[in-house]
Amino acid sequence: MKLADLTPRHFLWRMEGDVAVIQLNRPERKNPLTFDSYAELRDTFRDLVYAEDVKAVVFAANGDDFCSGGDVHEIIAPLVDSDMKELLAFTRMTGDLVKAMIHCGRPVIAAVDGICVGAGAIIAMASDIRFATPRASTAFLFTRVGLAGCDMGACAMLPRIIGQGRAADLLYSGRSMSAEEGHQWGFYNRLVEPEALEAEALAYATRLAKGPTFAHGITKTQLNQEWSMSLEQAIESEAQAQAICMQTRDFERAYRAFAARQKPVFGGD
């Protein structure tokens, strides 16, 4: 399957070499999500597993903001009048987006500017690498709208990124985490000035896309599935994973390039 010519209806998509760039496309409203954009993003990340032409993904801001979460009028208002079956179908769908991002087999880099709240903060959290501008404001604000902080995997994933106490603070209070806090706590890997954000994220993703992409997929799998393993299980799982990677042509390419004192050119196989 190839996704280079994908023409989504509910978000922007473009290819920069082997890197897919995704942007929500309602900058005048700080890029809120709708039922349709949730579903289309979920399906796109599911398809990435089989995409031969996408080696990495940048989920970028649009305008001066990343994402303001679920649209108040198009999502929140209908949910108030929904029954339990409909509500559970919705919450499972939003969780399926996170699962699709985790299992897409590609490194995902979030480039966060401005508002990054609610489900937007979850999308950033579910990414592998996060860059942000100094003006990024990130909030898991579910309790501020009468909901629990345990949304879309936040109670499982956020403590692993920034620690239990810091995650509890954000998830109970719904307060904004400043870019500086996010950087100090390890939520953001790098702070970048707004005018350079997308270019830096794209350059990083491009470097990954030129690397051993099959091995990157294995790395992503191990990073996620080892959460529930004992140390002994993790070591054995990594032994098996590394043995698989040692059968790839990229492993041989790297050896031959090293022997010839050259830089390896990886093929992803």
UniProtKB/TrEMBL annotation:
<protein>
    <submittedName>
        <fullName>Enoyl-CoA hydratase</fullName>
        <ecNumber>4.2.1.17</ecNumber>
    </submittedName>
</protein>
<comment type="similarity">
    <text>Belongs to the enoyl-CoA hydratase/isomerase family.</text>
</comment>
<dbReference type="Pfam" id="PF00378">
    <property type="entry name" value="ECH_1"/>
</dbReference>
<dbReference type="InterPro" id="IPR014748">
    <property type="entry name" value="Enoyl-CoA_hydra_C"/>
</dbReference>
<dbReference type="InterPro" id="IPR001753">
    <property type="entry name" value="Enoyl-CoA_hydra/iso"/>
</dbReference>
<dbReference type="InterPro" id="IPR018376">
    <property type="entry name" value="Enoyl-CoA_hyd/isom_CS"/>
</dbReference>
<keyword id="KW-0456">Lyase</keyword>
<dbReference type="InterPro" id="IPR029045">
    <property type="entry name" value="ClpP/crotonase-like_dom_sf"/>
</dbReference>
<dbReference type="GO" id="GO:0004300">
    <property type="term" value="F:enoyl-CoA hydratase activity"/>
</dbReference>
